[in-house]
Structure formats: structure tokens, C-alpha cells
């Protein structure tokens, strides 16, 4: 049903007078009469009784009036809600990010942005790179902080993480200051599950080093990997941690390979409209990325 027809019907039902209703609505009487005819045809019943050339709301009309008022209220509420979400001052940002960014970069980013835009709302998703790419493609997230870059999407590099080999504190490798990944070819590895960006990068590094180490456990988060390394389950390729984030039972040895790094970046699906609040966050991140990293 047409929203205008519903609105016109409500005014007509309240006045029960075509001339008065048409004047209040600023439309012609024939236009109003045609709208009423359309509505009655859709409903399948007359909504007014014609009494002495006047209209009188009947039982069907009273039912229609109750629901029309409710429908118009819901439509008005939805319109206001959408307008609020599209407001860069009060809108909604649907942000996806890697598990590994939850302990430092993303919380600090959100803290600073909320200082700048305190009324903006957030719908956050934390997950693996392949899940993030799917959410961008499906329109479930507006933008993402991820690695590696999803093919075909815009990309703004934020910072680079060097990769290292995490080993148990008592491991012979723990005394080294640097290490080639090939030296760990006979070690059991703890890795992330397939589909995670870091697992993809680790597999590529191992292939380039000419090794195919056994994966003894596939974790869902880097801290789990580091905890299992500390427990003696194996070694793992992980980003060099910030001092306060390091696992006490593990030693972190920088890898010598030039490719042993991953770039964390900002991306979004430019085939979909970016809501104003999300566009505002993109600009904020780009202009403040050096301070944030």
C-alpha cells in the first residue's frame, strides 16, 4: 500500500469530509477520491458508508484506521532511525578486525575516535581474514582492519608487523638473537587454522624456506598459540609482540627472512555505499594512522 494513500485515508477518516480533508492535505478532491478507491480495492471492502453525500467511517474503516496509524508511526520511526544512522555525528559503524588487533591497535583507535565522535555507534566483529572478507562482500561490515589485503578492494596500509619464531624458554633456539625459518624445519609447529591470514603467510614462508613442518595444533587466536608454545607443544610463527603482550613462558626470535612481515591495513567494499559515520572513521584512521601505530 502507498504511504501517501494511508496518510490521506487517516486524515479523511478523522474529518469524514472529502472537501475538508483535501484542503488540509493540499490536494484536489478527485485525487483524494481516487486514492480512497485504490485503498478500498486493495482492502476488498468499503471503508466508509456514504450517508447523505457525506462519509461515515464504518467497522472496516475503523479497523483500517487503527492499523494505518500504527503503520505510519512505524514508517516514521524507521525513517528517523535510518536518518540517525546516516548522520556522521550519530550514525553506526560496522567494523570488522582481526583477532590479533583486539589487544592494542583497535581498542586504542576506538578510544581516540570516540573522543572525536562520542555519539557514533559501533557494531564490531572480530574474526579471521576469510570471515572478514566475506562480511565485506556480503555488506555485513562497512570496513575492516585486516591482513592480507582482500583482492580487488581499496587498501590503506596502516603499519607493518615483523614476524618471529616463538619457542619455549628452555628451547635451544631461545638463546639465539635471529633465526632462519629453515632451521626450524624439524620442529613441531603450532599454527592458526586455515583461512587465517597469518596461517597463509606462515605456509608461504615455510614453502619458500623449503620446509614442511608438522602442525600439531591449529588454534583460533595468537595468544593460544603462544600459550601452547610456552607449554612445550611446539614452535610458532607470530608477530613480534609488544612487551606487555608477550607470553612469559616463550622466547621470541626475529626471523631473518625479508618476507617475514605482515602489513595490517584498512579496507572496505567500494561497490557498496559507505555510511557517513563509517566514511568519517576512514578519514580519521588515514589522518591519524602514524600516531595510532
TrEMBL record:
Alphabetical list of CDD domains matching this protein: PBP2_GltC_like
Domain (HTH lysR-type): residue spans on this chain: 1-58
Domain of life, source organism: Bacteria
Gene Ontology molecular function: any one: DNA binding
Keywords per UniProt: Activator, DNA-binding, Transcription, Transcription regulation
One cellular component term from this protein's GO annotations in UniProt: protein-DNA complex
Family to which the UniProt record says this protein belongs: Belongs to the LysR transcriptional regulatory family.
Family annotation (PANTHER family): HTH-TYPE TRANSCRIPTIONAL REGULATOR CYNR, TRANSCRIPTIONAL DUAL REGULATOR HCAR-RELATED
Task performed by this protein: Required for the induction the katG gene for catalase. Involved in the response to hydrogen peroxide.
Protein name: Probable hydrogen peroxide-inducible genes activator
Biological source species: Mycolicibacterium canariasense (Mycobacterium canariasense)
Amino acid at each position: 500500500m502507498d504511504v501517501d494513500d494511508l496518510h490521506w485515508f487517516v486524515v479523511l477518516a478523522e474529518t469524514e469530509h472529502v472537501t475538508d480533508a483535501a484542503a488540509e492535505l493540499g490536494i484536489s478532491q478527485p485525487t483524494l477520491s481516487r486514492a480512497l478507491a485504490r485503498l478500498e480495492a486493495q482492502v476488498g471492502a468499503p471503508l466508509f458508508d456514504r450517508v447523505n453525500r457525506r462519509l461515515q467511517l464504518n467497522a472496516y474503516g475503523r479497523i483500517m484506521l487503527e492499523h494505518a496509524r500504527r503503520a505510519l508511526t512505524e514508517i516514521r520511526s524507521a525513517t528517523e532511525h535510518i536518518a540517525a544512522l546516516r548522520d556522521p555525528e550519530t550514525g553506526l559503524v560496522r567494523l570488522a578486525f582481526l583477532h590479533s588487533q583486539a589487544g592494542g591497535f583497535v581498542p586504542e583507535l576506538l578510544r581516540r575516535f570516540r573522543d572525536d565522535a562520542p555519539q557514533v555507534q559501533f557494531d564490531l566483529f572480530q574474526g579471521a581474514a576469510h570471515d572478514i572478507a566475506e562480511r565485506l562482500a556480503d555488506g555485513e561490515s562497512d570496513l575492516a582492519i585486516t591482513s592480507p589485503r582482500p583482492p580487488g578492494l581499496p587498501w590503506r596500509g596502516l603499519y607493518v608487523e615483523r614476524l618471529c619464531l616463538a619457542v619455549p624458554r628452555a628451547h635451544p633456539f631461545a638463546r639465539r638473537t635471529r633465526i632462519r625459518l629453515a632451521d626450524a624445519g624439524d620442529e613441531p609447529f603450532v599454527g592458526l587454522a586455515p583461512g587465517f591470514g597469518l596461517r597463509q603467510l606462515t605456509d608461504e614462508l615455510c614453502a619458500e624456506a623449503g620446509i614442511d613442518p608438522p602442525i600439531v595444533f591449529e588454534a583460533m587466536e595468537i595468544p593460544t598459540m603462544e600459550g601452547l608454545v610456552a607449554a612445550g607443544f611446539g614452535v610458532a610463527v607470530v608477530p613480534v609482540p609488544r612487551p606487555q603482550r608477550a607470553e612469559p613462558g616463550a622466547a621470541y626470535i626475529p626471523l631473518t627472512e625479508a618476507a617475514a612481515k605482515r602489513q595490517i591495513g584498512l579496507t572496505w567494499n567500494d561497490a557498496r555505499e559507505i555510511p557517513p559515520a563509517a566514511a568519517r572513521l576512514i578519514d580519521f584512521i588515514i589522518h591519524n594512522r602514524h600516531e595510532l601505530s
